[in-house]
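quick one, 420 residues, struct below
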Amino acid sequence: MTSVISQPRILTVRSTGETTVLAVATPTVATVVASPGPPGATGATGADGVGVPAGGTTAQVLAKIDATDFNTEWVDQTGGGGSLPSQTGNGGAALGTDGTDAAWVRTITAANTGGGSSEVAAEDGLAYTAWSGPGGEGTGTSADDTGARVSALDGANEAEVRVNLDGTVEITATGALKVNTVEVDVSGAATDDVLAFDGTKFAPAAPSGGGGGGIASTIVDAKGDLIVATAADTVARVPVSGTNGWVLTEDSGEAAGVRWGPGPGLVLVGAGAPSGASSFNITGFTSTYNDYRLLMRLTGSTNIILKAKLSVSGTPSSTGYDCTRAFWGSTDASDDNQQGTDEWMWSAVGATPGAFSFDIFSPALAESTLYDGIARQFYSTGALCVLAGAHSAATAYDTITITPDTGTITGRWRLYGYAK
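---
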């Protein structure tokens, strides 16, 4: 231990001649270091504290009796505390109690206002509710890994709605199924049946041809088939025409009231582009059309005369051709006439292109074939040519073959049918 001892200050008076001096001297400070002394005697025992009341049993807790300080007692705990049951193997379960012990459960049952019981269950992450009426033996059904369901049972009747993980919903019921109070009865349904409302409920019914009962898919057979009305509440199939470019036309003479046929005006039925050809065929003549328009733009490897023959199935006709031609050139005019020859003499072309337009009448019908037309021909010089002709045989032909008297032909042609 260290102690500091302070002494009072000392005042000294000293006189030297006429001067008196007062001096204050600071005393010396002494520091004393001492060792601790021995322990003192033990004091008197104090009074006891309040402490915790004696008694209590396992799991009890200390609780206040009233507002008085330290007024407590041991009581049974009424909430919280304790440890959870083992969680192993209880995925998806809920924590429940029977009023005494806690446990993991998959169904929680509680009374409902109807006097029965409600059960909310969880299984594999799915939830469902099952309810049993007052007179029933209500038991929860176990949800599986494909869906969840809601069930209602009263001992005799049962209804269940099942929501599946694949997005479908299944409804089963021993009684009537109702939607907004309207009954839906699906019992006895057969393939292709539809649900029809009979004024009281919806029930399966076979589709009918009219009256709102639906149209059976079996009425059509091929791509492009049409369904049309033939009378009140009556339908029929109109098969596809099978010919590209045909149009549907109203026709009161047909049973269906409509028919497929060529469109109005000219319809393209054939085309070609000969190149350096010694001959070429104009094809596309059928009985679909009575009359045709033929357009050609051709050049020749030299100055040539075009000749034409009718044929059917590859067999040409070599008799009975009549033709008349009239020419107007830059300086003169002329004409020629041929009767009963083996081919038509049409017009001429050269290195300068020639243009041709013919109307051909009844080539594919069993009657004589007629034609007339106009051409801008070139044979040494250009000229306008008007042509007309006939073939006397009453035969249906499918081809006209064009042949030059020499050289070859290059160009294009188009054949159009006149709508009947």
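Residues 111-117, 122-127, 131-143 have pLDDT under 50 and may be disordered.
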